[in-house]
Amino acid sequence: MSLTTRGIRPHAREMLPPGSPSLPSARRSFQILLVLAVPALSACTDRSADPTGPLSLSSSSASADRSNSPAALASVGWQEQGRSLVASHIAVSPIVATRIYGLLGVAQYGAVVDIDEQLDAAGIPPGDGGRLRLEAERGAIAAASAAILSYIFPDAAVALGQRLTNEENNGPRGVQLYFARGVEVGHAFGNVMIAWANNDGFSAPWTGTIPVGPGFWTRNPGDPLPPIAGPQFGAMKPYFPTSPAQFALVPTPPAFGSPAFLADLDAVSAISAAPRTAAQLDTAVFWNLPPGTFSALGYWDALASQYIGERHFNERAAAHVFALMSAAGMDAIIGCWKVKFTYFYIRPYQANPTITTPIGKPNHPSYPSGHSCVSAAAAEVIKAFFPEHAATLDTQVAAAGRSRVLGGIHYQFDITAGRNLGRAVARAAIMYDRDTGLLAGVR
After folding, report:
1. Are residues 347 and 288 in the same domain?
2. pTM score, two decimals?
3. What range defines the domain where residue 252 resides?
């Protein structure tokens, strides 16, 4: 039985991928926090310097604070708030959700980097468990998060502002003063990211045309015609200047009617004709994560939150994970959509109308798979921080990709190309973060 027939949406339950061996190892615990904000930016660098395994992290980013419970991290709570708002707004598509997570993650990280520099200059020690630094960082993250989420979801702005006020007033006077200091810095960096969002190309009109003929994708029918999903995304501004070069690594898809094309089309057709088993339907529906859920990147965001809690990361370390993961995910979507609207590749169910699609029909071209692009990018970054989970992450990326074939909406070569693109973009992002600093592109 599928999640849909059970009446359960993935964002509203503890998420356990079909076939997972045990519940405790895959549990997701979520906490909803809300929040809002004013000025002071410095030219500090977030460039990673100290080697800590596969990914070089700054010393404050790499340290773990055992005195903080995972639920107490403002970054984790605000990421959950972002997921909740994405899920509750049905008009937010998965690719739009990816943009939201990117803005939120980078805003959080920029705010904590800037408040840390101010605290360092003021002689506040960076030692784990320092209450004044902790509260200043929480204030910065809360204000930056509230500013971004209020910008994206203006209907939630009042509630977000009230939550920020409540958090600021919760604690002794000395703590309030440092929280307020963080709010000032966080609001300022939130404004930096709002300015970025206003100029990232998201609102630019698409002026392209859809080619006509055998092998080309055709948009979903309707009266009026439903909007195409994100044709402008391929021209949006990436977070990492080096990542567009990775888009060229995606090979030309198999020619329409070629043996490679027919082999993969036949595989999708056979799954649909069999018909699909309950387990196949469960996998397709679980990983679909359409509007009304927290989306594909939201899944990886929640998983990162779990790993952050297990390793007891401090605020800066947690914010670094979220920022690098979500920014790489967004850059992967930019690359993916650039390729999609270059080849305009036909969907399997358009090539063979007998193929059924229990998870719907996406209104954008087939090649490559957007789900695999963003999933592979996010998982690659998470592996860099948590290499002990590499095997699990690779397995889940494969399952996410396979679900699109089971759902009748992608060929296997779509999945392979998307996975390769996502990983290449993530590796470029990791190198840029290590050598230049994640925030260099947005300041």
Report:
1. yes
2. 0.87
3. 233-438
